[in-house]
Amino acid sequence: MIAIFDSGLGGLSVLARVREALPLQDVVYLADQARVPYGDRGLEEIHAYAVENFAFLERMGGDLIVVGCNTSCAAAQLYGWPTGLPLLDLFDAAGEAVAAAGVGEAVVLATAATVRSGGYARSITRNAPQVRVREVAAPELVPLVEAGESGSPRAFAAVSRIVRPLGGVESIVYGCTHYPFLERHLRTLLPATRFIDPAEQQARNAAQAVRGLGLRDEAGEVRLYTTGDPEAFRRGVEALVGPIGAVARAPLAGV
Ligand code: DGL
User: Fold this and answer.
1) Which atom of ligand 1 lies at the shortest distance from residue 71's CA?
2) Residue 254 lies in a domain
3) What is the number of other CB atoms lying within 10 angstroms of the CB of residue 118?
């Protein structure tokens, strides 16, 4: 069973790719919506949440953790990952994705905590040293996706405030898993820009890891948990990726 977690709905952009790549694996997904957004918090606090998130995912029977939260990767740069399970870090996938895209310039849009960590620039430079990297924090965007407003004029205005000052951009990397849900606005504002979603590489890496670990085919069931309100979560999931599985509340110690 694959275990995916995020602070909220953003990791569904990873889940969607993983489902395409591995339709016969069961998936447990945890959204820590009681504490979203992570991106405005300190890395130590985010690490403490990861400890609880991982304990839950291990209890649920996860065999492989596919990280769906970049901001947690930022904390892991400093504190490590609190699990003994095999794990796929999104920063690694992002570096590989940018290298494969063959671009000369990459603007990473991410949360404030991810930008502060510098982890994206390090991963991209490790994989593709010739690429010029710029990291831009976009803290306004996660709350809009969480509030079910990704299609709204408010979301368009917020995306516009972030990308207009950038000028012409060869490529944008989604350094936060919530942002692919704002893609229509980004494409309207930046019609000539290439968009790189590390979730695609993350899903390829997941398929390879499933083979490498010899995980057997399962029923392809998805179970979704939130530390927040399950009914609001169900509506959010259905609006973004459709009715893909049963929703329940996650009984985590700290929330
Ligand atoms: N979706 C997450 C990420 O990829 C976290 C966003 C947040 O909670 O601020 O960084």
Assistant:
1) 10
2) no
3) 14
Last-in-domain residue among 198, 213, 229? 198
Alpha-carbon distance of 225 to 244, in angstroms, equals 12
Residues with CB under 6 A from ligand 1: 6-8, 10, 36-39, 69-71, 111, 114, 142, 176-178
> Could you tell me if 224 and 57 are in contact, meaning their C-beta atoms sit under 8 angstroms apart?
no
Instruction: Give domain status of residue 255, yes or no.
Output: no
Structure confidence by residue, pLDDT tens digits, 140-171:
999 999 999 999 999 999 999 999 999 899 99
57-90: per-residue pLDDT in tens? 999 999 999 999 999 999 999 999 999 999 999 9
pTM, two decimal places = 0.97
For 41, the token pair is 């918090």
Do residues 65 and 156 share a domain?
no
Quick one: pLDDT at residue 252?
79
Domain limits for position 34: 2-89+200-249
Last residue of a domain, one of 155, 177, 198: 198
Q: What is the dihedral of CA 57, 62, 68, 70, to 10 degrees?
A: 70
Same domain flag for 50 and 61: yes
